[in-house]
Design a protein that fits this description.
The complex is a heterodimer of chains A (401) and B (533).
Chain A: H1 3-14, H2 20-28, H3 35-45, H4 48-53, H5 60-63, H6 68-79, H7 82-91, E1 95-97, H8 106-109, E2 118-122, E3 131-135, H9 142-157, E4 161-164, H10 170-180, E5 185-188, H11 202-207, E6 212-216, H12 228-239, E7 242-245, H13 253-263, E8 267-270, H14 281-288, E9 292-293, H15 297-308, H16 329-332, H17 334-337, H18 342-350, E10 356-357, H19 358-365, H20 369-381, E11 385-389, E12 392-395
Parallel strand pairs in A: 3-4, 3-7, 4-5, 5-6, 7-8, 8-9
Antiparallel strand pairs in A: 1-2, 2-6, 10-12, 11-12
Helix pairs in contact in A: 9-10, 12-13, 18-20
Chain B: E1 2-11, E2 14-25, E3 31-34, H1 39-42, H2 44-54, E4 63-69, H3 81-91, E5 103-105, E6 108-109, E7 115-116, H4 121-130, E8 135-139, H5 143-146, E9 153-157, H6 160-170, E10 175-176, E11 179-180, H7 199-209, H8 221-233, E12 237-240, H9 247-257, H10 263-276, E13 290-291, H11 299-303, H12 313-316, E14 321-324, H13 332-336, H14 339-344, E15 346-351, E16 354-359, E17 363-368, H15 386-393, H16 398-401, E18 406-409, H17 415-419, H18 427-444, H19 458-464, H20 469-481, H21 486-502, H22 510-518, H23 524-532
Parallel strand pairs in B: 3-4, 5-8, 8-9, 12-17, 12-18, 13-14, 14-17
Antiparallel strand pairs in B: 1-2, 2-4, 6-7, 10-11, 15-16
Helix pairs in contact in B: 2-3, 8-9, 8-18, 21-22
Classes of the chains: A alpha/beta (401), B alpha/beta (533).
């Protein structure tokens, strides 16, 4: 952290007066205005209260810049009063907190580019409980999706908070699984906290405030612009104690998050993938560069807790069994195998988390078409197998209970 | 003098008798044609005049009027030329009126007096039979198809002179217009071509000409099986897979495993092709048609149209396969028009001039890529966003998907499979099983409206696809765990019926049901599942 920035922040904090929070909320709600521009305004006017109370003419020096945000600020000043923006926030069930307020996450205050405030629905992460960010590709493989779901559920069982971006693919899968398992999860959005993006995660979005929170530094109704996502990524790793990357391509947004996490001094773990697997290239590359290898959730939690001086709770029930991909996995999972016919067992053994086509399965099992389809359908009814896409099948989850 | 000669016109799918009346009188030398004629029909005047002159059959400088009755029927095409020429010769006194009685003339004339082939001869000949004609004279090139109709004499002629000689000889007219007929060299009077029809011979020739066979498709066991089921129950089929997976090849081969058409079916199909002008030179279509219109096809070209309407691709594919490659690329409005013929197996085209119906009992085979780049759901290659995949799929109409019973994934074949030594089953072997399944269906549905399992209505499904209590309980579980819909459940039963027929079982067993489930048709939800991952 640069010294200059620290001074700036502390000087702002010194000038804070009671009720200032409301003015901060008003300023942060202004559309288009970014962090740096707010900083420039504060440097010029001294406090958000003065920005609010200043006549339009006082903005003349800024007007010379002829920039979009100045025009936006002018019309915002004219049209939106302090009360109005507070009402709006209340209507949408959102809350706001400024770095001076007590609920504001301590971890974020340490950031060079700490946001001027956070809008959120639900809660903010509990600072005393371990938080882990699970991130990865939006267009992920079936394996990646199931891995993310497994991690989300496992972390939930250990009462670890899962932080992510609610994006399609890995992010959403991990958060969904975490909530389904009764855990707490927090989404940091690249849009206003009142906007659900991507829309396909609307169910997750609706359930998040009750089992965690939806957080954004952008004001209400801010659209999800592409430029917002790299900015919000710093908050995802900023709120977490450690970051897990599940699947990432060579050039992936997740790797930007990883760079930010390393800058912030956070631990980075990668889920190893196969050599030559394009979707795992990023993860394998991270491991090559010295990232932690995630092979077991317990070991991961032990390591992270040791470093952060935190503890995690052991789940009430026993550990979830991890299915290894060797041929004897069935023997170790009597719950799945009970009642399976030899044909179904054979099919289940040949199936993996990566989807296989019917032709390939016919080849590997040596069964006839009728035997194979009958076996697969029975496994599907038992929910052990999933048809990932037309005539391509995979195991439905990593954990089998 | 006045004369009448018989001819015929094609109107939609039907032949209509047309009487050609000619009046040759003294007066100003004109050639007037009346009777609601299209321009190519009106041009017959020039063709006939030149053809007569160049055949040495001048009728002199006279005032000529030709009428094609009934005058209310719009006539088009060039098939009246021969009849007009004969009518003129009769009116001019060159031929005796009794020589043309009971004979129907069809053919287009070249300026040198040659007879050129025309469309629709098969239908015209069968029409002539039903309205009591004894003889039909057609261009020699149309003799093959014309002679397929039994019970009527069909004669083929190469030139106008040949026809005139034949008619003159029949009524013993030694001299025609100063031309000594016996002087016409090789053309002996009365020597028109005649031919014995032999459907079997055509079948043999055309089967030999087929160069596609299922043994050429390597690997792809799923696709092969789906094709077999589709052929056995006449189910519509959708193939989804990346480019180069062999979808088009499979569709082509599908005709080779369908049962052979019966003689009636051959005639029915040949009539359509005869009218459309797509009949092969053998005169009949004995192998099931395979039509693969490009995705830029227009609605009239697909469904039939024009003025008056002619058959479109759906009718040309009657009793065969209509293959739509790159299914989502087709114009939505064009594709929607397929819904009615898929349901009714006939397409009705209504125009101001009348309503026409064409047979359209085709099997729809469609193929598509799973997304724009073609590799979804292989996310290591496919870079399409979820929204893009959805958008690509949303181009297909849901009501049309509802009419497709089978859906399979086609995948890329590995090099080993392509070159590996495994002998694949030939079309003949598969067809044997398909034939058996057809026989079972025919026996089961005797006396009812449907012929194949794919045509069963919801009520029929209840009657013919009955499950035992135990199977019903099991299907209930499947229904829930795969979240099927009522519609897709019905289609699964129909396909299971076909699979059981292939298996020669009267009762549908769990193994039939499970195979039907794996081949089940897609619905919107299926793609959502794939995208939700």
């Amino acid at each position: 952290m640069k010294i200059g920035d620290t001074q700036k922040i502390s000087c702002l904090q010194a000038g804070a007066q009671p009720g200032d929070e409301l003015y901060w909320m008003w300023l942060c709600s202004c559309p288009i205005l970014t962090r740096n521009e707010i900083l420039a305004l504060i440097r010029y006017f001294g406090s958000p209260r003065e920005v609010y109370e200043a006549p339009l003419s006082a903005l003349a020096p800024f007007q010379k810049l002829r920039q979009k945000w100045v025009r936006s600020l002018l019309s915002y000043k004219e049209s939106c009063s302090l009360e109005k923006s507070a009402d709006l926030l209340h209507q949408k069930g959102m809350k706001f907190c400024h770095p001076d307020d007590s609920p504001f996450p301590q971890k974020l205050k340490a950031l060079v580019d700490c946001p001027h405030g956070l809008f959120y629905k639900g809660d903010l992460p509990d600072p005393d409980i371990l938080s882990v960010a699970v991130i990865g590709a939006r267009r992920c493989s079936h394996y990646g999706a199931k891995m993310a779901a497994y991690l989300g559920a496992q972390l939930a069982r250990y009462k670890v908070q899962v932080i992510s971006g609610m994006a399609a693919g890995i992010d959403g899968m991990a958060q969904k699984a975490c909530i389904e398992e009764g855990g707490r999860s927090f989404a940091v959005l690249g849009s206003g906290a009142d906007i659900c993006y991507p829309p396909e995660n609307s169910r997750l979005y609706r359930s998040l405030p009750d089992s965690g929170g939806v957080i954004s530094e952008f004001g209400p109704a801010t659209p999800p612009l592409p430029s917002h996502f790299p900015i919000r990524n710093r908050l995802i790793c900023g709120l977490a104690d450690a970051v897990i990357v599940v699947e990432a391509r060579k050039k992936s947004g997740s790797l930007i998050t990883v760079d930010l996490a390393l800058d912030q001094g956070k631990d980075v773990y990668a889920v190893p993938g196969r050599f030559g697997d394009e979707l795992s290239y990023g993860c394998n590359h991270l491991i090559e560069q010295g990232a932690g290898i995630l092979t077991s959730v317990e070991e991961f939690l032990d390591e992270v807790c040791q470093r952060n001086g935190k503890t995690y709770k052991n789940p009430e029930s026993g550990k979830l069994p991890l299915v290894s991909s060797d041929d004897h996995s069935c023997i170790r999972h009597p719950t799945v195998c009970a009642g399976l016919t030899p044909v179904e067992q054979l099919i289940f053994e040949k199936l993996e988390l990566d989807a296989k086509g019917v032709d390939q399965l016919l080849e590997e099992t040596g069964l006839t078409m009728t035997q194979l389809t009958e076996g697969i359908l029975n496994l599907q009814v038992r929910n052990a197998v999933q048809e990932v896409s037309r005539n391509r099948y995979a195991r439905s989850s990593i954990t089998l209970s | 003098m006045f004369s009448t000669v018989l001819s015929a016109a094609i109107n939609g799918m039907e032949s209509r008798k047309v009487t050609v009346e000619a009046d040759v009188a003294d007066g100003l030398p004109t050639f007037t044609m009346v009777g609601y004629l299209a321009s190519e029909t009106r041009e017959a005047a020039e063709r006939v005049r030149s053809a007569l002159r160049n055949s040495g059959l001048s009728i002199g400088v006279r005032h000529i009027t030709v009428n094609l009755a009934p005058a209310a029927l719009h006539k088009q095409g060039s098939s009246f030329d021969l009849a007009i020429a004969i009518a003129l010769l009769t009116a001019a006194g060159t031929l005796k009126p009794e020589s043309v009685r009971g004979i129907l003339f069809i053919g287009e004339l070249g300026l040198n007096g040659r007879l050129n082939p025309v469309r629709g001869v098969l239908e015209i000949v069968s029409g002539a039979l039903s309205c009591g004609c004894e003889t039909v004279i057609v261009p020699a090139a149309n003799l093959a198809e014309g002679s397929m109709i039994r019970g009527i004499r069909v004669l083929g002629a190469e030139t106008l002179v040949q026809v005139v000689c034949f008619l003159a000889a029949a009524t013993d007219t030694p001299e025609v217009s100063g031309m000594n007929l016996s002087m016409q060299g090789a053309l002996k009077p009365g020597s028109l071509y005649e031919r014995r029809a032999d459907i079997e011979e055509v079948r043999y020739l055309q089967r030999k000409g087929q160069n596609r066979d299922f043994s050429q498709i390597k690997g792809q066991r799923l696709l092969r099986r789906a094709s077999e089921v589709a052929a056995a129950g006449f189910h519509n089929l959708l193939m989804i897979g990346p480019p180069g997976a062999g979808k088009t090849m499979t569709a082509h081969c599908l005709t080779t495993i369908m049962p052979e058409m019966t003689d009636e079916e051959v005639l029915e199909v040949s009539k359509i092709h005869s009218i459309a002008g797509t009949l092969p030179s053998e005169g009949l279509v004995t192998v099931r048609p395979f039509r693969a219109p490009h995705h830029t096809v227009t609605k009239p070209a697909l469904c039939g149209g024009g003025a008056p309407p002619g058959p479109g691709e759906v009718s040309l594919a009657h009793r065969g396969i209509l293959y739509l490659d790159e299914f989502p690329e087709f114009d939505k409005a064009t594709i929607e028009a397929l819904r009615q013929p898929l349901e009714d197996r006939v397409i009705r085209i209504s125009r101001v001039t009348g309503s026409y119906s064409f047979p359209a009992g085709f099997m729809l085979v469609a193929s598509m890529n799973p997304c724009r780049c073609g590799y979804f759901p292989d996310r290591s290659v496919c870079r399409c966003s979820n929204a893009e995949v959805r958008q690509y799929l949303s181009r297909i109409s849901m009501p049309l998907l509802d009419r497709i019973d089978l859906c399979v994934e086609a995948r890329r074949v590995s090099f080993e499979e392509l070159t590996g030594g495994r002998e694949e089953e030939s079309s003949a072997e598969i067809r044997e099983r398909v034939n058996k399944a057809h026989k079972r269906q025919k026996a089961r549905y005797r006396g009812s409206a449907c012929q194949f399992n794919s045509e069963l209505s919801a009520a029929d499904v209840k009657q013919f696809c009955r499950l035992t209590k135990e199977e019903e309980r099991w299907m209930a579980k499947v229904y829930d765990s795969l979240s099927l819909t009522a519609r897709s459940y019905n289609r699964i039963l129909k396909v299971a019926r076909t699979i059981a027929d292939l298996d020669e079982e009267e009762q549908i067993l769990p193994r039939h049901l499970s195979e039907a489930v794996s081949l089940r048709a897609v619905d919107r939800r299926y793609w959502d599942d794939a995208l939700r991952n």
